[in-house]
Design goal:
Elements (H helix, E strand, L loop, with lengths): L2 E3 L4 H9 L2 E6 L9 E6 L4 E5 L2 E7 L5 H8 L2 E7 L7 E12 L5 H5 L11 E15 L15 H7 L3 H11 L11
């Protein structure tokens, strides 16, 4: 049985900041629809803003389930796993919001990220107000070696103009797989 913590601080904060990948889970409201689970990574794209608040840069990609689900109901869970060192899993449960590149205040939110790998292809800043912090053992999580961040996402979007990214959002990220609006 894991432990529930009052906040993200001390060793939990250190652990989260050391991870090179985390996972995001969201779901639409109701009994129907698809639960979404997405891996996230790239150094400089995740920040802890306080003991109950985190954020990450969300980039143009093959889907936009997280944004659609957050706009509908706000429910979200983030999971961080130790792939090196002592086994550990930390989960952050909360309510999330998305400020997209099309929203007022997006440029201001970019200031939360002191060393992002790219801003051109960012489509949103996702912020989570964390209401539950917990850990569990992670004994079955494999040991893996981190070799570095992939640069393919940044490189692929660097070839697109700002207008191309508007078209990308309108054609590839307009709705979730369940038909929920994204932008």
């Amino acid at each position: 049985m894991g432990k529930v913590y009052p906040a993200i601080d001390g060793r939990l904060r250190d652990f989260i900041e050391e991870q090179s990948v985390f996972f995001v889970a969201t779901a639409p409201s109701g009994a129907d629809g698809h639960v979404n689970l997405s891996p996230k990574g790239m150094r400089g794209t995740f920040v802890i803003l306080g003991p109950h608040r985190v954020a990450w840069l969300d980039f143009h990609g093959s889907g936009a389930e997280t944004i659609a689900h957050l706009r509908q109901n706000g429910r979200i869970t983030l999971m961080f796993c130790a792939f090196t060192g002592p086994p550990n899993i930390v989960r952050l449960h909360g309510r999330g919001t998305a400020v997209t590149v099309e929203d007022a205040g997006f440029a201001d939110r970019l200031g939360d990220f002191p060393d992002p790998p790219d801003l051109h292809s960012a489509r949103a800043v996702i912020t989570v107000e964390v209401d539950r912090v917990s850990d569990s053992c992670g004994y079955a999580v494999p040991l893996l070696d981190y070799q570095g961040d992939r640069d393919l996402l940044v490189r692929s979007h660097s070839r697109r103009t700002a207008e191309d990214l508007v078209t990308y959002r309108a054609t590839k990220n307009a709705a979730s797989i369940d038909g929920l609006p994204v932008f």
